[in-house]
Amino acid sequence: MSDRSSQPAGRVRGDAPYALRRGRLVNVLRNKGIEDARVLDAIGRVRRHEFTEDGFVFRAYFDEALPIGKNQTISQPFTVARQTELLQAEAGAKVLEIGTGSGYQAAVLCELGVRLFSVELHASLLERAKGVLHRLGYRLRTKAGNGYEGWPAFAPYDAIVVTAGARSVPQPLLDQLAIGGRLVIPVGGPDRQEMLRITRRSEQQFDRESFGIFSFVPFVGS
């Protein structure tokens, strides 16, 4: 959860020029079908311009993905909102994020009050994201590693979100879901993936729902 009263010292871009743009973005997402008021409020509080590269700050509140290096992107706000909505994560829930990336999705989840654990393959991206999240007062556990393996040390999780396109659903992530827990993951080829929500009903039973076609960078794992 964010703690604005104890922000560490560091470079934080001013927010005043962006607050109106953020409100407009929330309206765009609402018009595109995002219904969960908690998610929209979280998007409305997160300073996306802090998570973008300097050359793209002027586009921070456009509903589009932007490059962040290592052939990765900060996800489109609609995609972040949709995945977050599908997670149905309540405050206090234990959530695993696969693919920290810029840290933007992590910030939105933290705004919902979840206990967040985040794994990122690229150590340099993770260090940068941690710096921004720390400056803005967000608290979560992170590690550099292969997201395909999840983070078994803190399992089971009430929800798991994967922010890259997977060829198939990794079995370790299913194994780390709590009973009643939900995995939201895009599955498919390199250019188009089907957004799936998989709910664990028992040790061996999983329900699968589909929520349309999206486009993510590839999930690098084995």
Walkthrough of the structure:
- The chain is of the alpha/beta class and 222 residues long.
- The chain has helices at 16-31, 37-45, 77-87, 104-111, 123-135, 171-175, and strands at residues 66-69, 72-74, 94-98, 115-120, 141-144, 157-162, 177-188, 193-200, 206-214.
- The strands form two sheets. The chain has a seven-stranded mixed β-sheet.
- β4 (115-120), α5 and β5 form a beta-alpha-beta unit.
- The relative contact order is 0.14.
Key features of this structure:
alpha/beta; disordered N terminus; seven-stranded mixed β-sheet; two-stranded antiparallel sheet; single chain
Pick out the low-confidence regions.
1-11
Structural class assignment: alpha/beta
Assembly state (oligomeric): single chain
Q: Please write the string of helix (H) and strand (E) elements.
A: HHEEHEHEHEEHEEE
Distance between the termini: 32 Å
In percent, how helical is the residue content?
A: 25-40%
What's this model, at a glance?
By secondary structure, the chain is an alpha/beta fold. It is built from six helices and nine strands, in the order H-H-E-E-H-E-H-E-H-E-E-H-E-E-E.
Helices and strands, with pairings:
Blueprint: H1 16-31, H2 37-45, E1 66-69, E2 72-74, H3 77-87, E3 94-98, H4 104-111, E4 115-120, H5 123-135, E5 141-144, E6 157-162, H6 171-175, E7 177-188, E8 193-200, E9 206-214
Parallel strand pairs: 3-4, 3-6, 4-5, 6-7
Antiparallel strand pairs: 1-2, 7-8, 8-9
